[in-house]
Design a protein that fits this description.
about 50% strand; 17 strands; single chain; 14-stranded antiparallel beta barrel; about 350 residues; Porin; mainly beta; 4 helices
């Protein structure tokens, strides 16, 4: 059977993904700006909505292949109040060149950590300083056929901590496969390249570890809800801290206390975020989600609270679409996500 052009491209993409996932890479932390979700829809699903059936412009910050012609001419504004003076904001605009199938987007994203008090080795105050990440992002998406779309985004930015500045960059590659009739979408996001270097040249450059995630959404013809799931960080199987599954020794009796955790199941679930979206009619949608790894790592043993859970709401207000979300990262409080989008031009 002769394969179509779209099938050949999809096969090539997955071959590259598998090659990247098996390649050895250096472990370097990304700036928080590149990992914290700004899309209120993405945050309200506990980051499980990586392949929504109906995408919005803000979603392309996490998956560039979700950009399509319906977003052309739109402006997206986003804000996140994270915790203790930390806040994030973004603005993104999309446009489609006349007579072209592809769509491009560009925008800015900023994460501020607030003001801090500096002290010398003797403990004497030296004044206040700030810390922040800022990045410019731009990319494009093109449909290869009625089902398959590929996209890419390039991030360039800097991290500032007092008088220290570091430059960073990252490339995102995405692909989505949508079967509208079956209400099914599958998406893959691959971060094959990224790194950071100190602008002053006092430290060596470092590369970010490659990242690969798969997402899926499934709707139903006779039910007003959609199920979502994302399986992230496929390049690393064991995300648990060292020694988590080890047996312990009772300090009084010297007896061995067996660890009752099912290690395989816990390792498997630490990659998984799941959620659901309810269509309440008249442009009103409610969603909620659960992120297993976040709950296991950030909950308190004696007061787990709602760490790892999230909820969100979408509604239409005249010419504007508003999204609100609350995402609990820790028991000290939940982050608040707000997004506003509107159409500025026809394309």
């Amino acid at each position: 059977m002769k394969r179509t052009r779209a099938q050949k491209v999809l096969a090539a993409v997955f071959a590259l993904v598998l090659t990247s996932a098996s390649a050895q890479s250096q472990d370097a932390l990304r700036p928080a700006l590149l990992d914290l979700p700004l899309s209120a829809r993405f945050a309200g699903s506990a980051e499980s909505m990586g392949a929504p059936l109906q995408s919005t412009l803000g979603d392309v910050l996490m998956q560039p292949a979700l950009l399509d012609t319906s977003h052309a001419g739109q402006l997206h504004l986003g804000y996140m109040d994270y915790f203790s003076g930390t806040a994030q904001a973004a603005a993104i605009y999309a446009r489609r060149p006349e007579g072209r199938k592809w769509v491009w987007h560009t925008g800015l994203r900023n994460l501020g950590f607030g003001e801090f008090t500096g002290r010398d080795p003797a403990g004497v105050e030296t004044g206040s300083f700030s810390a922040s990440d800022v990045a410019w992002v731009s990319g494009a998406a093109i449909p290869l056929d009625s089902n398959l779309t590929v996209g890419t985004s390039l991030w360039l930015g800097q991290s500032v901590l007092a008088d220290r500045r570091s430059a960073f960059g990252q490339l995102d590659l995405g692909a989505t496969y949508l079967r509208q009739g079956r209400q099914l979408r599958i998406a893959a996001l691959w971060r094959p390249w990224g790194g950071m270097t100190n602008a002053g040249g006092t430290t060596s450059s470092a590369r970010f570890e490659g990242d690969l995630r798969l997402s899926m959404s499934k709707g139903f013809a006779n039910a007003p809800f959609t199920l979502t799931a994302t399986y992230d960080e496929l390049q690393t199987w064991d995300l648990a801290p060292d020694g988590l599954y080890d047996d312990t020794i009772d300090p009084l009796t010297g007896d061995t206390i067996a660890n009752g955790t099912w290690a395989f199941g816990d390792r498997l679930l630490r990659h998984l975020a799941i959620g659901a979206e309810l269509d309440l009619g008249d442009g009103l949608r409610f969603r909620f989600g659960y992120h297993h790894r976040r709950r296991q790592e950030l909950r308190l043993a004696n007061a787990p609270g709602t760490a790892g859970f999230a909820w969100g709401l979408d509604l239409n207000v005249r010419r504007f679409q508003v999204a609100i979300a609350r995402n609990t990262y820790h028991t000290a409080g939940a982050s608040t996500h707000l997004a506003l989008r509107t159409r500025l031009t026809d394309r």
